[in-house]
Design a protein that fits this description.
The structure is a homodimer. The first copy, chain A, is about 40% helix and about 20% strand. In chain A, α1 links the parallel β1 and β2.
Chain lengths: ~290, ~290
């Protein structure tokens, strides 16, 4: 489905954290498409909230439905992270004191279930849910080597092992990234996110005195097997490259077709400058071997 | 095999980090068994090094073999961690500058391979390798509920999911512990160790304002499937309980028969005091379901 194929009417953006919601909004604006933004408090950043048609708490499900029913969008998209960053959601949830039990229940069920419930709710009410592949396909990683550095044989082995690991983790509600060095898993991403995982790797790697980049290794990132690719795609950007370089990592491999590369020109330029490879890998064929 | 069944002659302790080597040495001393301690620099603590018959770098394989050949032990045991804590090993390795390439190769292969190579080397040279089950079985977790707190239904579900996760991670060279809350994996242990993983969980949990322990959840810890139970068993102790409590965790489940409980009396007392459950779980039957 492309923008042109969607019938007349507004597109509703349910906006979480990061740059993605703004990028989607900008692209819709550039294509002359009417759109409405529902920003989630505690996730959507200030710039987005100032452009939003509504700002709601993530758990204000009735409010979100009321917005959609008022806007009658021809399509809905969930853009940006709603993975809990820590304080903000708790504080937000706290504001709905009468709902403590409900909050605790949603909380316990995990992000995956939260997202699945959101998708079901949107579709049950007759709205069409679109993903980045529909609205901004140019943001998705391709199966290609970006930039001018390439993985060596060790790097290729680490990439294979890394995606096998992520495949095995797919049934569990956990991050979609890991760092490998040789046959060793140095870190698996939890709710702290990629940047903080890389900070941890940098901390572990720090004191190696006998080379500047002590160990090499690779960051792998991609969606889960069987994940609904319309929501919650993993993303990298220029900051990911800088943090990976600080962690002494030799390169980054992302699952093609299922990972967002934000600000591609700058991301590739940073990788070139810092000596990291950046590769989009088709993980579907190897997925069964994990 | 028990101490009494081992023939006459000294037992050699190849000693890494933590309290375990001293506990084993004390037990051998109490049983009137002659023993020799080879302490690994950068791992074994000061108290142990002062009692050691030899102190060597972890990668000084020739030196270690020379010790064994001089002592002619009737049995050898590897006690204490040799998982790389960061700086110390790199510094140690650095001292052998002529061996950079060899070091890099050992490094890249990961800890599992390092341990397997050590076990093979000891056995190839005709020495009998004994584990904690042989030398100090009272240190191993039993299948029982310790202390006076018990997991509720949610806790039992988290324990099951947690050991299923660890089972799936077994083929990879990665830590042997994880924290789960509801259906969500909050952290998987990497080379940073359990205490630092728990600090990370505490950081994530910190600002939840609507209860004192914001989310509950469980720490699971155990050896890998198929792991040689004579070496590198996971361990918990009083500090683990304190750190788990700080992370807002409701309890700890360890794999019975494959996890060391250090200072059991104090560990259980801390769990009781802080309101955590501590349970030894038989993970073998459930292992195939992961």
């Amino acid at each position: 489905m492309t923008l042109a194929e969607i019938g007349a009417g507004p597109v509703a953006i349910l906006a979480g954290s990061g740059q993605l919601p703004l990028l989607v909004a900008d692209r819709l604006a550039a294509a002359g498409r009417e759109h409405r933004i529902l920003a989630f408090r505690g996730f959507a950043d200030r710039a987005l909230r100032s452009r939003a048609d509504a700002v709601l708490g993530l758990l204000d499900i009735r409010g979100a439905i009321a917005c959609l029913d008022a806007w009658r969008p021809v399509a809905v998209t969930l853009a940006g992270g709603v993975r809990r960053p820590g304080a903000s959601v708790a504080l937000d949830a706290f504001s709905l004191v009468r709902n403590r039990r409900e909050i605790a229940a949603v909380w316990a069920r995990g992000d995956d279930n939260l997202l699945r419930a959101a998708v079901a709710l949107i579709e049950e009410r007759g709205y069409r849910l679109l993903g980045i592949a529909d609205l901004a396909p140019e943001l998705l990683a391709e199966e290609t080597l970006y930039g001018r550095h390439a993985p060596d044989a060790a790097g290729r082995a680490e990439i294979g092992l890394g995606f096998a690991l992520l495949a095995r983790l797919s049934p569990f509600d956990i991050g979609q990234a890991a760092v490998l060095r040789g046959e060793r898993v140095v870190a698996i991403e939890g709710p702290e996110g990629t940047d903080r995982m890389l900070a941890r790797v940098a901390e572990i790697a720090k004191p190696g005195p006998f080379r500047r980049r002590p160990f090499g290794g690779v960051l792998v990132k991609g969606p889960k097997l069987g994940q609904d690719l319309r929501v919650d795609l993993p993303a990298i950007g220029p900051r990911t490259i800088v943090n990976a370089a600080r962690a002494g990592i030799a390169g980054i491999a992302v699952a093609s077709g299922g990972t967002i590369v934000l600000d591609r020109a700058r991301t590739v330029a940073e990788a070139d400058r810092l000596g990291l490879f950046l590769i989009g890998t088709d993980t579907r064929q190897g997925a069964g071997t994990g």
